[in-house]
Design a protein that fits this description.
254 residues, alpha/beta, seven-stranded parallel beta sheet, TIM Barrel, 43% helix, 2 domains, globular
Length: 254
């Protein structure tokens, strides 16, 4: 990322805060923690900051050390939530023990997991039935979580955080049948297709989305999606052109 891109990204994050989007997601893997720290300087109390530990760092001592490094890069004294990015070779008991130590020390206020399927969630719940969320791949074209992961999380009071809610560069265009449906619904609401796609995910109260905003205009577009309420017939139309595939053997991830 060059200096111009960096400045635009910081403006986008600050614009999002101005519009009430206070959940900022980052990770040690992304290389964006310092940028986020700069963007939230002077506004830390307005922000819900989430970061993630890489699986190869997720031993008990490694998790604590990784968190300390993330805090330094973010120029903050605490994370609002800290996630295990995905499962690796270290036992969940060790990673979760580190998370609980970080909570006791005031370094993190809550913790959760990412890319966990139901079997992983069950194991995690048996160890520590108090984690906050499961961050998963979820968008209109990738609805695998709706089969089992989303129902499990709703039953256990665990939030779903949808990453890549626009499909990671594969958002349907108006030239396709799927895209036309989104455009038609958007036109009825004087909205955009991306706002409709976000509203579809947010129809469940247990789902939060973390859409990327590369500039302030994107941030404003994302923020406005929170006020969009789809009708039952519109949800049915989207469901028809974006049907759930069969329940996969493995949870899709990026």
């Amino acid at each position: 990322m060059d200096d111009v891109e960096r400045k635009v990204a910081i403006r986008a994050l600050r614009a999002g805060l101005d519009l009430g989007m206070n959940h900022i997601d980052t990770a040690e893997m992304y290389g964006t923690e310092e940028l986020v720290g700069e963007a939230i300087a002077g506004r830390r109390n307005e922000v819900f900051v989430v970061s993630k530990v890489l699986p190869e760092h997720a031993s008990r001592t490694g998790t604590i050390a990784a968190c300390e490094k993330s805090l330094k890069r973010l120029s903050t004294d605490r994370l609002d939530c800290y996630l295990l990015h995905w499962r690796g070779r270290f036992a969940l008991t060790d990673t979760f023990a580190a998370f609980e130590q970080l909570v006791r020390d005031g370094k993190i206020l809550s913790w959760g997991v990412s890319n966990f399927d139901v079997s992983d969630l069950e194991e995690a719940w048996n160890i520590a039935p108090n984690f906050a969320c499961n961050q998963v791949l979820y968008n209109v074209a990738e609805r695998a979580v709706e089969h089992a992961v989303l129902p499990w999380c709703e039953e256990h009071g665990v939030a779903i955080v949808a990453y890549s809610p626009f499909g990671h560069g594969r958002f349907p265009t108006e030239r396709t049948k799927r895209g036309r449906v989104l455009h038609e619904i958007a036109a009825a609401h004087k909205a955009t297709p991306r706002q409709v796609a976000l509203a579809f995910l947010l129809r469940s109260k247990s789902v939060f989305a973390i859409p990327k905003a590369s500039n302030p205009d994107h941030a404003a577009e994302n923020a406005a999606a929170g006020d969009l309420r789809l009708t039952s017939s519109e949800i049915e139309r989207i469901d028809e052109v974006f049907p759930r595939d069969r329940d996969p053997k493995e949870l899709p991830t990026l």
